[in-house]
Amino acid sequence: MERTTSLTVPRIKLGSQGLEVSRIGLGCMSMSGNYGPPKPETEMIKVLHHAIDTGVTFLDTSDVYGPLINEILIGKAIKGMREKVQIATKSGICFEDGKRGICGEPAYVRACCEASLKRLDIDCIDLYYVHRIDTQLPIEVTMGELKKLVEEGKIKYIGLSEACASTIRRAHSVHPITAVQMEWSLWTRDLEEEVVPTCRELGIGIVPYSPLGRGFFSAGTKLIENLPDDDFRKSFPRFKPENFKHNKQVYEKLNLMAARKGCTPSQLALAWVLHQGDDVCPIPGTTKIENFNENVGALSIKLTAEDMKELESYASGDDVKGERHVYMSSTWINSETPPLSSWKAE
Ligand SMILES: NC(=O)c1ccc[n+]([C@@H]2O[C@H](COP(=O)([O-])OP(=O)(O)OC[C@H]3O[C@@H](n4cnc5c(N)ncnc54)[C@H](OP(=O)(O)O)[C@@H]3O)[C@@H](O)[C@H]2O)c1
């Protein structure tokens, strides 16, 4: 098996409750679909073992990836090495009659957690995220159940994904939040104004998802040319032809700077995220050992303040066309929940 032996992956503390993870994690979503069909299980187990051998031990999954089969894959891959890895999974996105919904009801969260434990074949989930915020009920209600799951030893730490500052604050007052997972990359910086400062004030770690712009910063135009019809990215506004013909210039500039710096565009894009701070742990996704090795190489890239500024100038203002997500209505911008008092009164 191919191994990266030249680089020791550092460890960082994520949040203030004691969770320790590798400086960079591994997003496992695309191993089980979303970006084209699910990949062969034996191949993906090799990628996972290689990541763990390299020191990338923070594995990111969700019950909705696959759905369900991604957790089963992770469960198989980590057999006999449970103590080496930190497993992060999520619940909250549900499908009923083919329709996508969001649910944070206590009974639902508990059932999902117990089902994830079975699929992962573990006794305790290291980090359990609310994948999307249920805006029909106060966040305190969902958090109350998560707190019980911590007390029962079924989960160690709690995280939120796509939550606004006030929802993070309210959730944190019920039980400390360890990490907030949000999309963060050169072309997605909407969290920087309020979410990042709130996390830092409360001692919450930040886990940037899609740090490679869902593969755009790695492959640019080639990504779009080669997307199969069942690739979820086809429906993303930024990848629609009318927007992409404009957005591709961001990759072109990134590529030129990478050549100048002697690295790849993926590494440069990831290095920009890594330079946001030691409380930031990106989880680039890949299904290939070669790409994984390249991404880990980003850990050794040093960027100056001028480099950071130049990179940021490629995707500022009107430089990027199209919303970052296909379901903007369920992102942090719409994640305020009703006050607890109103819910109790019902
Ligand atoms: N909380 C949420 O709502 C949420 C949403 C989306 C994702 N996530 C999590 O975040 C993780 C990462 O996000 P993501 O997968 O959407 O996007 P990403 O990490 O920005 O990009 C992944 C894509 O880039 C490609 N890639 C990676 N490294 C490469 C390299 N060195 N060279 C060429 N291509 C490369 C991958 O293809 P190959 O497989 O061919 O390498 C894949 O198509 C997911 O796996 C998931 O765990 C969370």
Automatic annotation (TrEMBL):
An annotated Gene Ontology molecular function: oxidoreductase activity
Domain NADP-dependent oxidoreductase: residue ranges: 23-313
Record bears the keyword NADP: yes
Protein keywords: NADP, Oxidoreductase
Pfam families in UniProt: Aldo_ket_red (PF00248)
GO cellular component: cytoplasm
Keyword Secreted on entry: no
Transmembrane segments: none
Full protein name: NADP-dependent oxidoreductase domain-containing protein
Top-level taxonomy: Eukaryota, Viridiplantae, Streptophyta, Embryophyta, Tracheophyta
